[in-house]
Design goal:
Layout: E1 9-13, E2 43-49, E3 55-61, E4 81-87, H1 92-109, E5 127-133, E6 142-143, E7 149-150, H2 152-165, E8 170-177, H3 186-212
Helix pairs in contact: 1-2
Amino acid sequence: MKGRIDGGEHALGGCPSSPSSSVKSPSSPAPSDAVHEQYTKGIAVHQCQLGTVGEMSLWEFSGSSNYHVLYDHFIGNVNCVHVVLFSLGDSRREQERQVDYWMTFLRSRIPPVEPLQDCGKSKRPAKVMLVGTHADLASDVKKSPNGESTSPASEHVLDYVQKNYGYLFDVHPRVFAMDANAAGSADMKALKAALTQIKTNIVEVTWQILNFLGLGQV
């Protein structure tokens, strides 16, 4: 992501298990909080062409706590969107815990840009989107007339994030409830549309800064 001016995406999801649910095996080579064999190890970087969004650099950060000490070197860029993932199949309390962990993680690693705005908000706050996964496993997910998924639990998470972190970040006003088995769903189209708009804004602001510095033609 560093050095790019075409926008990008950081995907953050999962966090260390709570003491009551942690399963540890001293003989296992995998991190103790890995929940399956195919978990992301460290940071997986993908250069991809995402339909109408265009070219994007996707950085997927492992939820395993073994790697979190490394993330200080990669998180801090506001010229991207940070996508925080949580499972809609979890309890409401667990969803809130997962999201709160990553929002606090981001807050401690993204310094504000001065001059500060109202309530101490950064001049260029980091952009955050919330994505609820496993919509097919959640009993409270319903379809709206236009085919998009809605969930009272996800709206609760959004309200919680806006209340506790809205003064620090630009939080997208919608939670995207996603079913990995429905790649062409209305929810996926809405997510791509939101990413396109954010990417466009990032590119415009970045070019303005480069032109001001006389580097726009480089």
